[in-house]
Design brief:
The protein has 19 helices and 18 strands. By secondary structure, it is α/β, with parallel strands linked by helices. The chain has 3 domains: about 140 residues, OB fold (Dihydrolipoamide Acetyltransferase, E2P) (Beta Barrel); about 180 residues, inorganic pyrophosphatase (n-terminal core) (Alpha-Beta Complex), CATH 3.90.1640.30; about 100 residues, Roll (Diaminopimelate Epimerase, Chain A, domain 1), CATH 3.10.310. The radius of gyration is 25 Å and the shape is globular.
C-alpha cells in the first residue's frame, strides 16, 4: 500500500502474527506479537515483581543505595535538586517522601525556569549550602553534564548522588552517577525517565534498610503511593511505554489516588479518581504541574505532591489550576497570532513564527499545535528571541538548528529529532526562515504504519473494545491504527463550534460488512477535513486512523478518527 495519500504519505500495514491467549481476541494478540511482545501473560496482566528489574543492575546503583543507607541510619540532612517539569517534580517528590519517612532532614530546590534555566547552577548550590548545609545532595532529572555546579557542591563538602536519564558525556560529574543513558551503561533500561529511576532507587534502598534490620521496630514505607507518582512522571515525560515503564503505568494508575496532592488536583479539574488514565496524567494533571514553571513558581508542583495537609493541598492545587487557566489564556492569544503567520507560510517546508511579546513558557505548546495542524515542522519564537521547535516523524529538527547556531544565525540552538530550542536576535529572523526552508527540502517522511487492515464494518464491537487491553498507550506503544478498505462515503458534513463557525467534520463510511462513523474535531481547514468535505457522495476511499466505540443516548456505534485518507 505504497500509493500516496492526502497527506502525501505511504501506508504500511504490519504483517499479521498468529497466536492465542485465553480471553483475548486473536486480532489483539496479533498486534501484541507484531509489536515484539514475547510474554503475553505478563503483558496483559503485569506484576511489579515480574516486570521490575533488580535496581542493582544499573551501574553504580549499589553505591547510591549504600550512601542513602548511611544517610538514613545517621538521620542526615539531604537536599534534592530537581527539574521544573513533571518528571522533575515527581522524582523529587518520590525521594522527598521516602527519605523524610525514614527520618532524614529534607529540603529541595528547583530552579526558576525563566530566570535560572534548566539544571544546577553555582549560585543555587551556594544558596543551598548557606541555608541547609546538607550532608548529601541528590540531583534528580538533571546534573549529568553540570560539571561546574556539582564540582562546587563537592568543594563545599556535600556528598553527591545524581539520578538522571539525560545523555552523558564520557566525562562524568563528581559523586555517584546512576543514569540508564550514561555512556558506559550496558543495560537495556535506557527508556526510563527519572521518576521511574527514582522509584527503583527507593525500592533498592528500602530493601537495603530491611536487610540492615532498620524495620525491626518500625514500618516500611508503603510503595504504592510512590508508584503512582512514578506512573504520573513516566506518562508526562513521554518516554517509551515499554518493558518496566508500561507495567509501572498500568499498575500505578490505580494508586495515583493515594497522593493527596493529585486528589486535590482531581477535585479542581472535576476528574473521578476511578477514571485516572494516561490522558489524565498527560493532559489534565501534567499541564497544571507544568503551569507553575511556565508562568509562575517552579516549586509549586513539588510542594503539592509532597503536601500532607488536605487543606493546604486544596489551596495549592487550586492555585496551580488557576495558573494553568492563565497559561491557557496566554496560549489562546498566542495561537491566534501564530496561526495567522503559519497560514501565510503553509507552502514552506518549515514554519517559523515570531511574536516579541509571546510568553517563552508557552511557545513549545503552540509549536506543537502548529505542527499538528500543518503536518510539518514548526518553530515558535517569543520574548527575548527564545523559541521552541517541534518536528514530524522522519525529520531531525535538531540538526539544522545546531547548524544555524554554528553559522551564527542563532545565538544558541540545540535539541534532538522531535524537539529543540533556539535563541535568536530577531534581526536575523528572515535569514533563519530561509535556512530552515532550505533544510526542509531534504525531508523524507516515513510511511504511516497500521496494525490492522480490515474491510469497512468487519471488526466487531468486542474486538474494538478489546484493543484497550494493549493500554496504557504512549510513546512506542501507540493506540492501534487501522486501514479501513472497501468503503464508500455515504455522507459528510461540517459541524459548527460554539461560535457558529464550521469546525468539525462528521460522516459515514459504508461497506458490505457494515458502517463506520467518521468524526474529526477541529478538522475544517485541514487537508484531510477539507478533502472529505469536498468529496462526492459515493466516493470510494480508504481511511487510516483509530477505531473506537462511541456511546451516545444509549446507543453504541463504531467510529474512526481519520489521520489520513486515500481516494480510489
Amino acid at each position: 500500500m505504497a500509493d500516496l495519500s492526502v497527506r502525501g504519505l505511504g501506508w504500511k500495514v504490519a504483517d499479521p502474527v498468529e497466536g492465542a491467549h485465553p480471553g483475548i481476541p486473536k486480532e489483539v494478540v496479533s498486534i501484541a506479537l507484531a509489536r515484539g511482545i514475547n510474554d503475553l501473560g505478563e503483558f496483559f496482566k503485569p506484576s511489579l515483581k515480574g516486570s521490575m528489574p533488580d535496581p542493582l543492575v544499573l551501574k553504580d546503583m549499589d553505591k547510591a543505595v549504600a550512601r542513602g543507607l548511611e544517610a538514613v541510619q545517621k538521620k542526615q540532612r539531604v537536599c534534592v535538586f530537581g527539574d521544573y517539569d513533571v518528571d522533575g517534580a515527581t522524582s523529587t517528590s518520590i525521594l522527598m517522601l521516602f527519605l523524610e519517612y525514614m527520618g532524614c532532614e529534607m529540603s529541595f530546590y528547583i530552579p526558576q525556569r525563566l530566570s535560572e534555566g534548566y539544571g544546577p547552577n553555582v549560585p543555587a548550590i551556594e544558596k543551598i549550602y548557606e541555608e541547609h548545609k546538607p550532608d548529601l545532595i541528590i540531583f534528580a532529572d538533571c546534573g549529568t553534564v553540570a560539571f561546574e555546579p556539582l564540582e562546587k557542591a563537592a568543594e563545599l563538602g556535600m556528598d553527591i548522588i545524581t539520578l538522571d536519564h539525560h545523555l552523558s558525556d564520557e566525562k562524568h560529574p563528581p559523586g555517584i552517577l546512576v543514569n540508564p543513558n550514561r555512556d558506559d551503561e550496558t543495560g537495556d533500561l535506557s527508556y526510563l525517565c527519572t521518576a521511574g529511576l527514582a522509584f527503583m532507587y527507593v525500592v533498592g534502598l528500602q530493601r537495603a534498610l530491611r536487610e540492615a534490620g532498620f524495620f525491626e521496630d518500625r514500618d516500611e514505607h508503603p510503595m504504592y503511593e510512590l508508584m503512582g507518582l512514578a506512573c504520573f512522571g513516566t506518562v508526562a515525560d513521554v518516554v517509551p511505554l515499554v518493558g518496566f515503564n508500561r507495567a509501572l503505568v498500568k499498575l500505578g494508575l490505580k494508586h495515583m489516588a493515594k497522593n493527596r496532592g493529585l486528589m486535590a488536583l482531581a477535585k479542581c479539574n472535576e476528574v473521578d479518581p476511578a477514571s485516572f488514565s494516561e490522558h489524565t496524567c498527560g493532559f489534565v494533571f501534567g499541564p497544571c504541574i507544568n503551569a507553575g514553571g511556565r508562568i509562575d513558581n517552579t516549586w509549586l508542583g513539588t510542594e503539592l505532591l509532597t503536601c500532607k495537609d488536605e487543606d493546604q493541598c486544596m489551596e495549592r492545587a487550586q492555585y496551580l489550576f488557576e495558573t494553568n487557566k492563565e497559561r491557557k489564556a496566554k496560549q489562546k492569544e498566542m495561537e491566534a497570532e501564530a496561526f495567522a503567520q503559519a497560514e501565510a507560510q503553509k507552502s514552506k517546508n518549515i514554519i517559523v513564527c515570531y511574536g516579541e511579546n509571546w510568553h517563552p513558557g508557552v511557545v513549545g505548546i503552540v509549536s506543537s499545535r502548529i505542527t499538528e495542524a500543518y503536518d510539518c515542522p514548526s518553530i515558535v519564537i517569543g520574548q527575548g528571541g527564545k523559541g521552541s521547535a517541534r518536528s514530524v516523524d522522519g525529520f531531525d529538527i535538531g540538526r539544522p538548528i545546531k547548524k544555524a547556531a554554528a553559522e551564527g544565525i542563532l545565538i544558541k540552538g540545540g535539541g534532538h529529532e522531535m524537539a529543540a530550542g533556539v535563541t535568536i536576535d530577531p534581526g536575523k529572523l528572515e535569514d533563519f526562515r530561509e535556512a530552515m526552508d532550505v533544510a526542509g527540502q531534504v525531508m523524507e517522511r516515513p510511511p504511516l504504519t497500521a496494525d490492522l487492515k480490515v474491510k469497512c464494518g468487519a471488526l466487531s464491537m468486542k474486538v474494538i473494545e478489546s484493543l484497550n487491553l494493549l493500554a496504557p498507550f504512549g510513546a512506542e506503544n501507540s493506540r492501534p491504527r487501522v486501514v479501513i478498505t472497501d468503503g464508500v462515503l455515504t455522507f459528510v458534513k461540517a459541524l459548527k463550534d460554539k461560535k457558529g463557525n464550521d469546525a468539525h467534520v462528521k460522516g459515514k463510511l459504508s461497506g458490505e460488512a457494515g458502517d463506520v462513523d467518521i468524526i474529526m474535531f477541529n478538522a475544517c481547514g485541514t487537508p484531510i477535513g477539507d478533502a472529505l468535505l469536498a468529496a462526492k457522495k459515493g466516493a470510494r476511499v480508504e481511511l487510516y486512523g483509530q477505531l473506537e466505540l462511541n456511546e451516545w443516548n444509549g446507543n453504541t456505534k463504531i467510529q474512526i478518527k481519520p489521520e489520513d485518507i486515500r481516494f480510489l
